[in-house]
Inverse folding.
């Protein structure tokens, strides 16, 4: 009996291609089943929940005042635990989510309401912390305060992905409260506002301006994250009976979106440049100063100052052997 084998490569290719396509399709279906969250979204409940949390009047205002006082005590005592407690009870995220929601859905009324309450929230928070630090001044610099006066690249990442987690949790049919509380802690909106009040009370405008800038960065990227997710989920736009009014509203929302996005993008690249400069400066100090007396002490006390095109590294050798010309040239 003679057995014949077909070694024709062309006959095997269709089967291999078919199996590969089937495997790829199976992987895509599997990933979709894991990552897709469209079926969990309740658009009506989400809209109502976001709108109901915007107001900074009555009960919410008093909760905000209490949380600001608690956060101020935490900063005064340099207590991380107290700060976390204050952030958990803070209602700061309400108007910020409202801004992102209104821009994504073209809702001008919600945009007005969110903007007004956002301003009220900031003024009330800063005024409360300002009065607190006038009564209980802090003479020494506090590490928790100092960390809230200068944003960096990590703050941008935390705010953006925290905002994504927040709005996804809000859109779920049953809100994931743990995620919402976690975002409130991670994005750290409360400490910067307290630090603004501290800076004003101490007449230190560097603290105040740096802290309000950090708060603005956090808020802007939460708004952008909210906008992106709601657009991805195709939340319905608000329809206006008057076509000319609808066109006018669209233009206003578009302009506001760009006004929010432009400084955020600029700051994003600026923060990336600063982070890169700081990292390279530390590597330089560790590599180039090896062999100098008190090497570790010199590296630790070196000052790295990022200022765009005028950035510099300052080193004081404290009377030790001066740097050689080759090393000095690296700093120029």
């Amino acid at each position: 009996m003679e057995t014949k084998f077909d070694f024709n490569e062309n006959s095997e290719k269709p089967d291999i291609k078919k199996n590969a396509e089937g495997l790829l399709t199976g992987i895509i279906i599997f990933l979709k089943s894991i990552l897709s969250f469209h079926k969990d979204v309740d658009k009506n409940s989400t809209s109502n929940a976001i709108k109901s949390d915007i107001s900074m009047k009555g009960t919410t205002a008093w909760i905000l005042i209490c949380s600001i006082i608690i956060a101020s005590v935490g900063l005064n005592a340099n207590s991380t635990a107290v700060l976390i407690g204050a952030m958990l009870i803070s209602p700061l995220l309400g108007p910020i989510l409202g801004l992102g929601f209104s821009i994504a859905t073209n809702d001008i009324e919600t945009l007005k309401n969110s903007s007004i309450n956002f301003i009220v929230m900031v003024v009330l928070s800063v005024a409360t912390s300002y009065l607190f630090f006038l009564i209980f001044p802090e003479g020494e610099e506090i590490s928790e305060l100092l960390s809230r006066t200068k944003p960096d690249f990590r703050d941008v990442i935390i705010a953006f992905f925290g905002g994504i987690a927040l709005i996804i949790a809000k859109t779920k049919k049953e809100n994931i409260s743990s995620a919402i509380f976690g975002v409130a802690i991670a994005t750290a909106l409360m400490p910067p506002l307290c630090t603004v009040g501290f800076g004003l009370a101490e007449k230190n405008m560097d603290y105040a301006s740096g802290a309000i800038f950090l708060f603005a960065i956090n808020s802007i990227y939460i708004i952008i994250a909210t906008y992106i997710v709601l657009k991805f989920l195709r939340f319905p736009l608000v329809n206006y009976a008057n076509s000319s009014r609808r066109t006018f509203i669209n233009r206003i929302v578009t302009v506001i979106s760009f006004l929010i996005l432009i400084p955020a993008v600029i700051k994003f690249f600026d923060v990336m440049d600063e982070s890169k400069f700081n990292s390279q400066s530390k590597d330089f100090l560790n590599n180039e100063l090896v062999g100098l007396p008190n090497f570790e002490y010199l590296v630790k006390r070196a000052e790295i100052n990022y200022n765009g095109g005028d950035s510099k590294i300052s080193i004081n050798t404290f009377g030790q052997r001066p740097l050689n010309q080759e090393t000095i040239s690296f700093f120029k």
